[in-house]
Design goal:
By secondary structure, this protein is α+β, with helices and mostly antiparallel strands. The protein has 14 helices and 40 strands. Helix content is 15%, strand content 28%. The longest helix has 24 residues. Bound molecules: calcium ion.
């Protein structure tokens, strides 16, 4: 693999003799340089180069990149911990991150150091055996950026390459840190900071280039993936996923082709198609597979009136990694209108299909179908729904297109659709065991009531979906009846059992069939890890890290981590000992958007928990249920104020503070504030008095009357909570 600038890097100095001679004979300044070079030479992270990443399978004790290897199977050949002895796992160490927001990262491990990321894009280096912190790098993300983040202030991890840790920041920077010291080597702003872009995904490194995407399609942006030189941070190429204004000319032929599938003036709202999570590279075929997100706004009727496929939203696009040149695409949801991103985990494997071994890629995107594609050509091999899908009956094997069901496209009428915008599967990584031949999917059964926003107007930089949260009064009886157990009373504040459920799904990708499942009564369960010990590990919103028999699905072991878990576990080996590590910290989209189901999760408290056989570290204690008893707060709110407040709340507050002001155990539940807080809403909401906590100022879009209305709505919700708690004898 080429690497043009290698010879310029000081730590590439080949000779120990040279370093020793320099250190002994020349000035202090030169000696300092040589010591630094020597340090970097001895840092094992320097050995994580193209060769090591391609040959990652040869280093089972390490975890070198996001999905462990470029195949991103999240399968470990380590087999000290097995289905026979997993019940002897104990806590080896715990590291407290001191954060209370969602934790989604996959840690990396090389030569005794665990590198990981947390809320607000902070990067950590910990001693992998003791948990002692080696360094922390806080990129000082301005807290007002939270206003642009649809799905909590999370980060899914870093990349390791030639002595550097590479990581994205919520405010759109790509940073390179010295792996040994945590010092900044370079940083690059990858987005226009005036636009509502954010980075939550992990970068990947391919042949000396750092690849990074971004999010923001809920607000109105044009999605793209960028490649930066790992040595300098300079932009090498950028691939836009949706066309811009044709009047400005197209960047390439792919954009010209894509523009033929759009209508209207989509570029005015950005078009969407953000690459906010998954992409991976096949070194043999030299193809980079990029998962592309939903359109912006969601509602296609408003985004591209008259329809069209709207390439390349909700697609997997194959590119040449050296140039960003388009090779092929497969669109999972043509003309998406439901937020069915295809940026979910992309996994590569060799599968026996009809008597021959084929190079495939697999994805379980939000739309509920499990796809197996030929990764050389993009040809559909098979697709089958892995959860309930009421938007499409099946994927036509001849055309490769979904066969939509009538009524699912909510052009002028409300529609109940499975899956909803949180998907049949979200960003939580799945895993594949070559031993069992099964893919382990953090699946969920969730529906949504899509209500077209008939008065929609795009508002620059704000929440722009083109759908509105359903108001009970607007919901037709027939629609209510379609959701079992729903009435007009329960609809506005749906009880937990209506929100959805999750399950760990063991899926046979060849037969396209379920083999087993483990059912949970909440959705939004953690990413998975498969191991050669015939185990599958997964965390839960209830704070457990759990091990299952990979063949049978039998639950074999669990341990409490102190917070709801959404992140995926990893495993690694140091000396003779195999470890399992998990990052615990409830949050992410479902955690912040809230609902009664999200409140069942254990409150967010960020930590790294590492387990080994026979380890006898102290177990994490359970905290008592933190449900706060609210008092009555007097207020003179008129029904008109409450209604107007709800409308404003739904547009500006809901995405973080939750449906019907029911928070999800991550961000403050507004109904439970101490009463004095309600007197300071102008300062908090308009002026940003709590910006350090991540509560931005909204003076650019709200005025004091709006704030009074929002307060009226919140206090009305508090009244209802108070009444419920009184009725149930003082609450839970
Ligand atoms: Ca989305």
């Amino acid at each position: 693999m080429h690497h043009s600038t290698r010879s310029e890097t000081p730590a590439r100095t080949p000779s120990w003799t040279l370093a020793i001679v320099l250190a002994l004979t020349v000035t202090l300044a030169v000696a300092a340089v040589s010591t630094r070079a020597q340090q970097r030479r001895t840092s094992a992270t320097y050995g994580v180069d193209d060769f090591a990443l391609i040959a990652a399978e040869a280093r089972p004790g390490d975890w070198l990149s996001y999905g462990r290897t470029y195949k991103e199977q999240r399968y470990s050949p380590l087999d000290q911990i097995t289905s026979e002895n997993v019940d002897q796992l104990g806590i080896a160490w715990v590291y407290e991150l001191g954060s209370k927001r969602g934790i989604e990262a996959t840690p990396l491990v090389v030569d005794g150091v665990l590198y990981t990321t947390g809320a607000w894009s902070v990067v950590y280096a910990l001693d992998v055996v003791t948990g002692e912190p080696l360094w922390t790098h806080d990129p000082d993300v301005p807290r007002e950026v939270a206003q642009k983040a649809c799905c909590d202030v999370v980060n899914r991890g870093a990349a390791l390459y030639e002595g550097k840790i590479l990581s994205g920041t919520l405010d759109g920077r790509l940073i390179a840190l010295d792996a040994q010291t945590g010092e900044l080597v370079w940083e690059t702003q990858t987005v226009d900071p005036e636009q509502p872009y954010t980075i939550t995904g992990a970068p990947r490194v391919v042949k000396g280039k750092v690849l990074i995407g971004n999010g923001g399609a809920e607000y109105g942006v044009r999605g793209y993936l960028s490649a930066y030189d790992a040595d300098t941070g300079e932009l090498v190429w950028r691939f836009y996923t949706v066309p811009g204004n044709p009047a400005d000319g197209f960047e390439n032929e792919a954009m010209e082709m894509a523009a033929k599938t759009w209508n209207g003036e989509w570029w005015k709202t950005g078009g969407g198609g953000t690459v906010w999570d998954s992409f991976t590279w096949d070194p043999e075929l030299d193809l980079l597979y990029v998962g592309v997100g939903n359109g912006s706004p969601w509602n296609q009727n408003l985004r591209s009136p008259g329809g069209g496929d709207n390439l390349f939203i909700s697609s997997i696009v194959a590119l040449r990694p050296d140039t960003g040149e388009y090779v092929w695409h497969y669109q999972t949801t043509p003309g998406d209108t439901w937020d069915y991103t295809a940026t979910q985990h992309i996994m590569l494997a060799e599968l026996p299909i009809d008597g021959r071994v084929r190079k495939v890629l697999m994805q379980a995107p939000k739309n509920g179908f499990f796809y197996v594609l030929d990764r050389a050509t993009g040809e559909l091999i098979s697709a089958k729904n892995y959860v309930t899908t009421t938007w499409a009956s099946h994927v036509d094997p001849d055309t490769g297109r979904p066969v939509e069901l009538p009524g699912a496209r909510f052009v002028d009428e409300t529609a109940v659709v499975f899956p909803g915008p949180l998907g049949g599967h979200n960003w939580h990584p799945m895993s594949y065991s070559p031993l069992t031949g099964l893919v382990y999917i953090p699946a969920q059964e969730m529906s949504n009531l899509y209500v077209p926003d008939l008065e929609y107007e795009h508002q620059e930089g704000q929440w722009n979906l083109g759908v509105t949260p359903a108001q009970a009064a607007d919901v037709p009886d027939a629609v209510l009846e379609a959701i079992p157990g729903t009435t007009k009373e329960t609809f506005e504040d749906p009880p937990a059992e209506l929100v959805g459920t999750g399950h760990l799904l063991a899926w046979d990708p060849v037969a396209q069939e379920e083999r087993w499942r483990f059912q949970y009564d909440v959705p939004w369960t953690g990413g998975t890890l498969a191991t050669a010990g015939n185990l599958v590990f997964q965390g839960t919103p209830y704070g457990m890290l759990t091990a299952y028999d990979a063949t049978s699905g039998e639950k074999l072991w669990e341990s409490y981590t102190g917070s709801g878990v959404i992140a995926p576990p990893i495993t690694f080996q140091v000396g003779d000992t195999q470890y399992v590590a998990i990052m615990s910290g409830w949050g992410g989209a479902f955690g912040v958007v809230g609902s009664r189901a999200a409140r069942k999760a254990v409150e967010s408290e960020g930590r790294v928990v590492v387990f080994a056989l026979g380890a006898r570290g102290e177990e994490i204690e359970r905290q008592p249920d933190a449900e706060i008893q609210v008092t009555r707060v007097e207020h003179q709110s008129t029904p008109e104020m409450i209604a107007a407040g709800k409308t404003a709340y739904n547009r500006y507050c809901l995405v973080c503070h939750g449906y019907a002001a029911v928070g999800g155990n991550v961000i403050t539940d507004l109904r439970q504030s101490i009463p004095r807080v309600y007197e300071f809403y102008d300062q908090i909401v308009l002026e940003g008095a709590r910006v350090e906590n991540g509560m931005p100022a909204f003076a650019d879009v709200l005025d004091p009357q709006d704030v009074a209305n929002i307060r009226a709505f919140v206090l009305d919700r508090r009244d209802r909570l108070y009444q419920e708690q009184q009725a149930s004898g003082g609450g839970r």
